[in-house]
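Hypothesis: this fold can be encoded by more than one sequence.
Test: take the structure tokens below, design a sequence, compare later.
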């Protein structure tokens, strides 16, 4: 067998041949070095010699692969190979995570290499979590629920990945950081199903990883009396809740990752096609980073877009007739159950007066010591009928560990949702917007995101938060909510997530007559909206998908409606959309065209600066220009003695600043640092508070009372000190301190974090005074971006993959897309056969086995 590379799409037919014991030479294409191909013995994910996988991988500009095959196994084969070719080290590392084998290779106490939907826990906790949550029985349910075509894609993806592993380990220089490491191994189809299932959990279990991984039962101490501390509600005692603050959540939390999306109907575009702008703000590194590709099976599948590494189907993208995107939803996808433990047995709990034994799961993890010696660690973890048990003390030190009378379990609706990837694969093949909507309602499977979609021939754009969400009634929230001290603390911290009494079956999640899943809200009771002007979401609730048609009356667990101020990013997104429709912005004649949307989503306007800068400068730049700063609330530092700061240069820089975060703007970092501190003393600094009847216009105005003035001046002084400590001038260009590094060179970037009201997102996790706002560590921000419309007879799509396709420093596609993004040069991605074949960068590689 030979892998062949040809330019401009000239590909001769394959010879089907496989010599199982022979060493076969493969010629690398697409800028990668060639490797000897050494077949492995037959086994899972490595089919016998009479099985056939074949695919053509055609790479166009920026290395985007367009994978063409005759069947689902073949297209999966090409996709698995391409992903591994570009991101082998990250993928191989991630499969250790999902198998629970990190400690075996990297030790127990090391953290995961990069952040993801599980953050960066210690290896040992990650291992126990994944082995416990993705147990053998769960994995079987996941596999059994998949349709045949998806199973074929998984099978092919596994074989394609394994083929590249064999080639990489045999020689060459690509993926040099890992290709010879012992942990870079062939995988089985089970590894892909584990990875798919893990993606389900981002809105639930994944946020409680350490609490689940360390939930070891206490030793029984004999019969116990019911604890008033733990069960005050049952004894008629009310308790004040512990103040534990808001528990951090990677996905679904106030400061978690997010996204923007706007679907413009034909009344907004002014032509015969609607238009979609989609832009998840996502991880730039690690296993959850996006990968862009097109998958084609003539007559069956033709889909372009993005998915997470290790996922064989497209999660956000477009086909010949449909385009869609996602944003993280405010709906809570999980709940906590407070369990009354059986007397003398902390691993049994009472339910309707009867003791129920928990399911024990004894897990042994191999651990590599610093000396290289291999040891073993065993924990016995437990599951209730609701889900895994929790060690709340691991979440917050003020919360107790598993006790003798009370314990806590978590239920994640998506832990029981095996339909997600069937839903996405059906969307990959959808024929119309009506078809797309019908699939969403039939499956009700989308796990933790909102959806906006447009379709060929449709006048309107579609918004929905229709997926898997716990079904709890207002009566249950009143009668089942825990009143214990711990329960009240959790309720205050987790917002709309139910914290229920687990001792009564009356507190089980309900099932509607038309629910698709037990315990889930029926799709008929979930929010959706069709509009011919626009629908949008920027991570606030469904309520303001279009402020001209606010939605209310949906279950409280879906998110706030009229009760909470929306983010400045949500306000900015709606102002951008409305300004484009009305023609009141600076982009020319009214109407959402590709060219105008391209510009407006990259122009990095900062809403808080537009609203408050002049008022703020009038306050913080008033005499005296030199004053004492007592501390930095953001950094939780107290200055003793107080530090004097001269704000003259900073005030001058902000007066001259253009209120944007484009790479050439000067002074934006001063505003970022100031605004991050301005709201810390209190968000009640506005003269006009939030008004639910004017949600895009409020709050507004800054108070000038002595307390607010002092707080704002202290915040500004601390911001100036931070900028001075950074070594960057107060009027430094944005791109000097906001950047990504590729090949040892800085690539200037633009945008900022959502807090100040940036719509263009580049949110660094690095402090300004620790090397600038680098996007090289664990940032999130604009990731896969797409603008899609459906002109007659074709598809027009413009995209970015901001961090580039490959994480291999030696790849030519490690930084090319990032440099294009820096320059604002959108890629008009080829979609049709004629466009692909005409692409000047085309390189075609055919593989088979």
């Amino acid at each position: 067998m030979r892998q062949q590379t040809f330019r401009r799409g000239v590909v001769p037919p394959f010879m089907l041949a496989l010599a199982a014991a022979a060493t076969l030479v493969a010629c690398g294409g697409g800028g990668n070095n060639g490797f000897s191909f050494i077949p492995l013995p037959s086994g899972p994910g490595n089919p016998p010699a009479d099985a056939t996988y074949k695919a053509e991988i055609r790479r166009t500009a920026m290395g985007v692969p367009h994978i063409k095959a005759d069947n689902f196994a073949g297209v999966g084969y090409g996709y698995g190979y391409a992903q591994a070719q570009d991101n082998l080290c990250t993928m191989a590392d991630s499969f250790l995570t999902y198998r629970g084998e990190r400690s075996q290779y990297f030790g127990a106490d090391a953290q995961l290499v990069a952040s993801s939907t599980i953050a960066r826990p210690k290896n040992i906790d990650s291992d126990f979590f994944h082995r416990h949550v993705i147990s053998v029985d769960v994995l079987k349910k996941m596999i059994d629920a998949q349709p045949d075509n998806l199973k074929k894609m998984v099978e092919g993806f596994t074989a394609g990945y394994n083929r590249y592993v064999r080639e990489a380990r045999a020689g060459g220089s690509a993926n040099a950081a890992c290709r010879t490491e012992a942990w870079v191994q062939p995988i089985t189809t089970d590894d892909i199903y584990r990875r798919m299932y893990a993606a389900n959990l981002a809105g639930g279990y994944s946020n409680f990883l350490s609490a689940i991984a360390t939930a070891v039962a206490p030793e029984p101490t004999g019969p116990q009396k019911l604890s008033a501390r733990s069960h005050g509600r049952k004894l008629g005692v009310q308790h004040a809740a512990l103040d534990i603050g808001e528990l951090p959540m990677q996905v679904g939390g106030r400061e978690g990752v997010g996204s923007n999306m706007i679907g413009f109907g034909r009344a907004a575009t002014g032509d015969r096609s609607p238009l979609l702008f989609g832009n998840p703000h996502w991880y730039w590194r690690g296993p959850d980073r996006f990968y862009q590709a097109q998958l084609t099976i003539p007559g069956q599948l033709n889909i372009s877009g993005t998915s997470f590494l290790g996922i064989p189907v497209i999660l956000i993208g477009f086909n010949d007739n449909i385009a869609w995107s996602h944003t993280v939803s405010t709906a809570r996808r999980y709940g906590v159950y407070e369990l009354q433990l059986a007397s003398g047995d902390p691993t049994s709990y009472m339910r309707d007066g009867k003791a129920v034994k928990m399911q024990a799961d004894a897990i042994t993890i191999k651990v590599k010591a610093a000396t290289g010696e291999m040891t073993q660690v065993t924990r016995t973890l437990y599951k209730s009928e609701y889900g895994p048990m929790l060690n709340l003390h691991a979440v917050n030190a003020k919360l107790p560990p598993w006790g003798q009378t009370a314990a806590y379990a978590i239920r994640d609706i998506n832990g029981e949702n095996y339909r997600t990837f069937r839903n996405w694969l059906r969307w990959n093949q959808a024929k119309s917007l009506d078809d797309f909507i019908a699939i969403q309602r039939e499956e009700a499977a989308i796990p933790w995101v909102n959806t906006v979609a447009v379709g060929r021939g449709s006048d309107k754009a579609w918004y929905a938060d229709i997926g898997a969400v716990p079904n709890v009634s207002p009566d249950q929230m009143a009668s089942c909510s825990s009143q214990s001290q711990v329960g009240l603390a959790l309720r205050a911290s987790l917002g709309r997530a139910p914290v229920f009494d687990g001792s009564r079956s009356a507190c089980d999640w309900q099932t509607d007559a038309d629910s698709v899943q037990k315990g889930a809200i029926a799709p008929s009771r979930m929010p959706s909206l069709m509009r011919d002007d626009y629908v949008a979401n920027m991570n606030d609730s469904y309520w303001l998908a279009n402020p001209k048609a606010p939605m209310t009356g949906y279950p409280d667990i879906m998110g706030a409606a009229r009760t909470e101020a929306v983010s400045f990013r949500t306000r900015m997104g709606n102002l951008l959309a409305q300004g484009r429709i009305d023609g009141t912005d600076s982009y020319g004649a009214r109407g959402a065209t590709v060219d105008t949307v391209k510009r407006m989503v990259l122009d990095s306007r900062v809403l808080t600066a537009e609203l408050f800068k002049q008022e703020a400068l009038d306050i913080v730049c008033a005499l005296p220009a030199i004053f004492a700063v007592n501390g930095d609330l953001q950094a939780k530092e107290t200055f003793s003695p107080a530090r004097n700061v001269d704000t003259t240069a900073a005030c001058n820089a902000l007066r001259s600043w253009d209120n944007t975060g484009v790479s050439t703007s000067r002074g934006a970092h001063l505003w970022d640092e100031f605004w991050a501190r301005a709201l810390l003393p209190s968000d009640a600094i506005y003269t006009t508070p939030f008004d639910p009847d004017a949600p895009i216009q409020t709050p507004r105005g800054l108070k000038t009372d002595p307390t607010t003035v002092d707080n704002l001046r202290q915040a500004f002084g601390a911001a100036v000190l931070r900028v001075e400590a950074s070594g960057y001038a107060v009027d430094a260009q944005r791109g000097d301190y906001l950047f990504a590094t590729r090949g040892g060179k800085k690539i200037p970037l633009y945008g900022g974090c959502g807090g100040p009201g940036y719509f263009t997102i580049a949110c660094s996790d690095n402090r300004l005074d620790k090397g600038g706002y680098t996007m090289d560590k664990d940032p999130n921000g604009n990731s896969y971006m797409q603008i899609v419309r459906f002109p007659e007879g074709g598809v027009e799509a413009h995209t970015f993959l901001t961090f580039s396709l490959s994480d291999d420093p030696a790849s030519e596609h490690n930084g090319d897309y990032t440099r294009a993004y820096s320059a604002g040069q959108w890629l008009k991605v080829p979609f049709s056969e004629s466009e692909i074949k005409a692409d000047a960068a085309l390189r075609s590689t055919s593989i088979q086995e």
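DSSP finds 21 helices and 36 strands in the chain. The two ends are 7 Å apart (CA to CA).
Hypothesis status: open.
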